[in-house]
Design goal:
- With 324 residues, this protein is of the alpha/beta class.
- 28% of the residues lie in helices and 15% in strands.
- It has a single domain, classed as Ureohydrolase domain (Arginase, Chain A, 3-Layer(aba) Sandwich), CATH 3.40.800.
- The protein has a nine-stranded parallel sheet, sandwiched between helices.
- α3 runs parallel beside α4 and α4 runs parallel beside α5.
Length: 324
């Protein structure tokens, strides 16, 4: 007989840990079926959406990214995590905080609203995991995290360097990391950009691992460079879904051929557990260009696996199934 409290745990669940049966094809959508709440004092990780795409240079639509990622996460919520072999919610308390409210008629207010939204979460000592939105949202998120942790190393997966000219006022998803460097929010000497396949005349001190290099050398070599460059510094992880080749992530605003596979990206994320990563975002999922949800599923899985890394840090022991 079905337990009476099964289903719609996004609203009905009392605890931020554990999980209960849900229909993958129905029910209230939260990220990984976590409880929707703004009572996060007991949360280890708080997931939130930033539905902002008014800094987009090409195809808009990533404002719908958080909604699509939540929908794509339902299958991941039902089984023990692969390849880890545990339920991460036995080890970390995770809440879905909902979305940052942004009035579309006043886009100039968005950076401050996003920063304040992040402050509310970070002030509880929870880790913030964010779903975008276009990549500009990372700038106010970095500002909020730097207030707490000081200048940050950036681990940046992307097709684009996002360090093109910036005047300090632009709402532009292609220039905000130069602003972050100029404002000393990000330390480029301990930061790595991975999967880049667009040109800029200056690296501005970042270690840049172009997509061709990644394909030739492999993910283990990537991780060696990341760990050597970042060291023990507090780091922020940002993953633009267009780091993936359009074959694996067509649902994005500025796709570029020659990118990483979803398998390469997942292997990379799963290998970052030794680093002091204080926050993460995944951005630029634009579902109206997607095919069969493959972009949203890739994004949801990358976020899910990052949460699994935090479960390992909290004491979970991976129990692999077969050879991985």
């Amino acid at each position: 007989m079905t337990k009476p409290n099964n289903g719609d745990q996004a609203f009905r669940k009392e605890s931020l840990t554990g999980k209960d049966p849900e229909m993958t094809f129905g029910g209230a959508l939260s990220f990984l079926r976590r409880k929707y709440t703004r009572d996060i004092d007991a949360a280890d990780i708080v997931v939130s959406g930033i539905p902002f795409d008014m800094a987009t240079s090409n195809r808009p639509g990533s404002r719908f990214g958080p909604r699509a990622i939540r929908a794509a996460s339902v299958g991941l919520a039902e089984l023990d995590a692969y390849p880890f072999g545990f339920d991460p919610f036995d080890f970390v308390a995770v809440a879905d905080y909902g979305d940052c409210y942004i009035d579309y008629g006043y886009p100039q207010n968005a950076p401050d609203l996003i920063e304040q939204h992040a402050d509310e979460i970070l002030n509880t000592n929870s880790m913030m995991v964010t779903m975008g939105g276009d990549h500009f949202i990372t700038y106010p998120l970095l500002k909020a995290h730097a207030k707490k942790y000081g200048p940050l190393s950036l681990i940046h997966f992307d097709a684009h360097c996002d360090t093109w000219p910036d005047d300090g006022n632009r709402l532009d998803h292609g220039s905000m990391f130069l602003r972050a460097v100029n404002e000393e929010i990000v330390d480029p000497s301990t930061s790595v950009q991975i999967g880049i396949r667009t040109h800029n005349d200056d690296t501005f001190g970042f270690t840049v691992l172009g997509a061709p290099w990644v394909h030739r050398e492999g993910i283990p070599a990537v991780i060696d460079v990341v760990k050597e460059t970042v060291g023990k510094q507090s780091a922020y992880l940002t993953f633009d879904i267009d780091c993936l080749d359009p074959a694996f992530a067509p649902g994005t605003g500025t796709p570029v051929a020659g990118g990483l596979t979803s398998s390469q990206a997942l292997e990379a994320i799963r290998s970052l557990g030794d680093l002091e990563i204080v926050g993460m975002d995944l951005v630029e999922v634009a579902p109206q260009y997607d095919v069969g949800e493959i972009t949203a599923i890739a994004g949801a899985t990358l976020l899910h696996d990052f949460i699994c890394l935090q479960a390992i840090r909290a004491g979970a022991t991976p129990l692999p199934f077969g050879k991985i």
